[in-house]
Design goal:
Layout: H1 3-29, E1 42-43, E2 56-60, E3 65-71, E4 77-85, E5 89-95, E6 102-107, E7 113-118, E8 123-129, E9 136-144
Parallel strand pairs: 1-3
Antiparallel strand pairs: 2-9, 3-8, 4-7, 4-9, 5-6, 5-8
Length: 146
């Protein structure tokens, strides 16, 4: 291999590395900023007691968190079904499921949806938040899964 070929390869390798470094820097610099974790304190809930598993409807105002604790069987498979009415989105945070805390964000267009989870202990805690600042009706229920 000639010296000029080697020099060309070195220049090409350095240029490629520089492009990768600049691309990574640009990617990090243009990542949308996430707001500081200033989760509002949970509000008193008008939902059913902890042993209820059936559907319940409540109004969740923007900037507040409604929390519901549902009785579960460790290792039990469930479907968490939900529907939300009103403008904006709904953030659903589930604790007490296998795999750790789950975070789901869904549109509040009145469409029914569900997701599967497996209980890690005796309770599953569901926190609902309307981050857009708009209030709306929310219904959730925990049903035995497949």
């Amino acid at each position: 291999m000639r010296d000029s070929d080697r020099l060309s390869l070195v220049i090409l390798a350095i240029t490629a590395a520089g492009v990768l470094v600049l691309g990574a820097w640009w990617w990090v610099a243009n990542t949308p900023e996430r707001p500081a974790s200033t989760a509002p304190a949970p509000v008193a809930s008008s939902w059913a007691p902890a042993d209820a598993v059936g559907p319940s409807v409540t109004r969740v105002e923007g900037g507040t968190v409604a929390v519901r604790t549902l009785a579960a069987t460790p290792g039990g498979r469930y479907l968490l079904q939900h529907v939300c009415f009103g403008p904006g989105s709904l953030t659903i945070t589930v604790q007490g499921a296998e795999g750790g805390t789950q975070l789901h964000e869904v549109d509040c267009e009145g469409s029914f949806d569900e997701f599967e989870l497996t209980a890690a202990g005796d309770n599953i805690q569901v926190a609902l938040e309307r981050p857009d600042g708009d209030g709306g009706q929310v219904s959730v229920q925990l049903v035995p899964g497949p």
